[in-house]
Amino acid sequence: MKSLFATGALILAGFVSAAASSQAAETGCAADVAYAASVLEKAATERAGAALSAMTPVEENGRCILRDVSLPLTEGMVTYTFEADEVAWTAHWGAGGREIAPQKLVLEMTGARNIPMFEGMPESIYQMRLIGERSRGSVHLDYELDPERKELALNRFEIDMGSGTRMRAAARLGDFDLPGLLAVPAQMDKAAQIRLHELDLKLENGGFFESMSAVWIAFLYPAYGDTPENAVAAAKQLLAGQVESLPDQLVDQESRKALASIIASVPHPSGLLHVNVSSAKGVSALDFAPLAALEPMTLEAALPYLEGVKITVRHDDVPSCVCESRW
Predict the structure, then answer these.
(1) How many Cβ atoms are within 10 Å of 321's Cβ, its own excluded?
(2) Would you indicate the residue range of the signal peptide (predicted)?
(3) How confident is the model at residue 17 (pLDDT cuts 50, 70, 90)?
(4) More confident residue, 315 or 17
């Protein structure tokens, strides 16, 4: 799935670059695809860029659309084919024209899957293709950017992995200096100054947590127990105690109950987890700079810098289902 993220980001970066480039005398979907192909050639493989260049987009109802997308990509030592039934986008620009990035953007990928290409193993490739066709994913990105006020409204960022695992996020960010963030070399202080005013996050696990167990168990075993099972049990007990001690300044009692419920369900978290973080003045990494010298940093020390921050957590522990009313 992270390959799906990477591919979507490359396609997005490509057509944003196309629109911002002073060399883009031609406009429209074909120009977007041409520049996206050039980005893929630099960031991924020449084969991917060539494959994208050969695709012909269409414009329907104001959207640019690529159908039956197939791109050969490489991630580390693994070669795979990214496939999508459809990649579509719409972009709206400000009074200054096509500069840096659209002020409003909607990007959608549907029917997405990654097929690992095992050399000399056609049976395994066939198996992975069948699995991929049964678990097609989708991505939806919708944002509005105000460059003058340096504000970003992430209206919707949703990933559906096609097997019951799903994530949806929305956020409001201030001090969002896009030119500084895209500068070369990178200006890390611009990232640290981004101020979060609100984050709304929904998560539903359909097996993804378990599939990543080799990653998260490495943080627990053998540090917390002599077996993986004992390490998970000990970590759950520790987290449950920390949740119970969270101050009222940050969370209410219902949020503590929700966090305790989701911890209790590990290693098979189920249901829908809904987290909302809000702050009228906003919170940024720079706010915590005075705490950098503390070793280790404690929640008690951070609380004065979290004034006005409210975290609300709810857990709908009904078994996972395709229930749009919960989203």
Answers:
(1) 11
(2) 1-24
(3) very low
(4) 315
**Helix boundaries (H) for the chain:** 2-20, 29-43, 46-53, 122-134, 178-181, 188-192, 208-211, 213-216, 228-244, 253-265, 299-302
pLDDT, tens digit (0-9, with 9 covering 90-100), for 88-116: 998 777 776 556 677 898 999 999 888 87
d(C-alpha 53, C-alpha 41), whole Å:
10
Q: Token pair for residue 182?
A: 């895209």
247 upstream amide cis, omega within 30 of 0: no
pTM of the entire structure? 0.82
Predicted local distance difference test score (pLDDT) of residue 25: 35
Cα separation, 128 vs 123, whole angstroms: 9
Beta-bridge mates of residue 279: 309
Report the amino acid identity of residue 175.
D
The residues near 181 (Cβ < 8 Å, ≥ 6 apart) are 187, 190, 191
CB atoms inside a 10 Å sphere around CB 212 = 11
